[in-house]
Write a structure and sequence with these properties.
Layout: H1 13-17, E1 28-30, E2 35-36, H2 39-48, E3 56-58, E4 63-64, H3 66-78, E5 84-86, H4 96-104, E6 112-114, H5 123-132, E7 141-143, H6 149-155, H7 160-170, H8 173-176, H9 183-195, H10 199-211, H11 215-227, H12 231-241, H13 257-269, H14 273-285, H15 293-305, H16 310-319, H17 329-339, H18 346-358
Parallel strand pairs: 1-3, 2-4, 3-5, 5-6, 6-7
Length: 359
């Protein structure tokens, strides 16, 4: 959905969302087991490009022709909300990995990619892939097949991004189902990446220290990653300055909302969905920033384009506020109707819609 109610180019939103799974957030597009060989099935993949609000795409056990996989890669290049893609047991065409690398070269949204564990990726394909994503600072996790890990290790000698992927992979359930995670091994990869100034290296170290409840050290590395423009770390710092992190025992006794706003705004400028929504809320409330419903609306709209569910209700209620320069109860109701697609927002959106209709 968009401000001007622009239609999806290939499929209507209703058709796309009929394929959404019934998970609690309503943001999973489950296409598992599909054979993408016909023009109609390929149009479904093309439709992903224009449909923001999808967080996860499950393509497990799918079969792709070369044109179909090219359509998927183009959709991932254009989409600004998909964070996770699962290709477990999928049948991929030749050159698939290079296509993914080209698609993710400038994609700063996708952070989790699970590849087919039995696909015969070659050393040349893996090398080209890492050449393409050399400057990508969003893609933290790749589920590589076990048999190609030695080649990924070779790439780690010249690509810090590969170090990060190995660090997250060795601490994941894929590698620790039969044995406990070895923090010292993952820390080794993250420290090397951090030494090479890769922000995900510092972020990975922060995650380990946070898991160990060493929040002082975790904060130090979140700050380092945030200074290197890692949006998620910037948002964690914003939460820290709101005296809400760590959740069990916040390090700050009193919030510093100005710092919280500044870090959230930096993350918002990088397109981080939660930051866009949070900055909108700050402008709406006028807390330690000049009150501006116009700016709040702009941030909510951008958050919607990045797939943030709560932004639908926020923008809907803003359109129902007579003080808003673009006051429009009909638009308010349209955004609240869209919010109802999310299971966890259904009752709230329904109640708000009833309040508007009653008045």
């Amino acid at each position: 959905p968009s401000e001007d109610n622009r239609a999806v180019r290939f499929l209507s939103e209703e058709e796309i969302y009929q394929r959404l799974s019934n998970n609690q957030h309503g943001r999973v597009l489950d296409l598992s087991g599909t054979s993408f060989e016909t023009p109609k099935s390929i149009r479904l993949l093309e439709g992903i490009a224009a449909t923001q609000s999808i967080y996860e795409v499950n393509l497990s056990n799918c079969r792709f022709t070369a044109p179909a996989f090219k359509a998927l890669c183009e959709a991932l290049r254009l989409n600004e909300s998909v964070r996770q893609v699962y290709l477990t047991d999928a049948v991929l065409p030749q050159g698939a990995l290079e296509g993914l690398g080209e698609a993710l070269k400038y994609n700063m949204t996708l952070d989790h990619l699970l590849l087919p564990l039995d696909h015969p990726f070659t050393a040349e394909e893996i090398s080209i892939f890492y050449d393409h994503i050399h400057f990508n600072t969003a893609l933290a996790f790749i589920g590589w097949p076990q048999k190609v890990l030695k080649e990924v290790e070779k790439q780690a000698q010249t690509h810090p991004t590969a170090l990060v992927h190995l660090g997250f992979l060795y601490s994941s359930p894929l590698m620790t189902m039969s044995k406990p995670a070895k923090d010292h091994k993952t820390m080794e990869y993250f420290k090397k990446a951090d030494k090479l100034k890769h922000p995900l290296g510092a972020y990975g170290l922060a995650k380990i220290y946070q898991k160990q409840e060493n929040y002082t050290e975790a904060l130090k590395f979140y700050e380092r990653a945030a200074d290197a423009d890692h949006a998620h770390s910037q948002m964690i710092l914003s939460t820290y300055y709101r005296a809400l992190w760590p959740q069990k025992s916040p390090l700050l006794s009193e919030p510093d909302y100005l710092q919280a706003f500044n870090w959230a705004r930096q993350a918002a400028h990088l397109g981080f969905p939660e930051a866009l929504y949070r900055v909108g809320r700050m402008y709406e409330a006028g807390r330690y920033v000049q009150h501006s419903l116009t700016k709040a609306g702009a941030y909510f709209h951008d958050a919607i384009q990045k797939g943030h569910p709560e932004a639908f209700t926020a923008l809907g209620m803003l359109y129902n506020n007579p003080d808003y320069a673009y006051y429009d109860p009909e638009k308010a109701m349209s955004y609240l109707e869209l919010a109802k697609r999310y299971t966890h927002l259904f009752s709230t959106a329904t109640r708000l819609l009833k309040n508007i209709e009653d008045h």
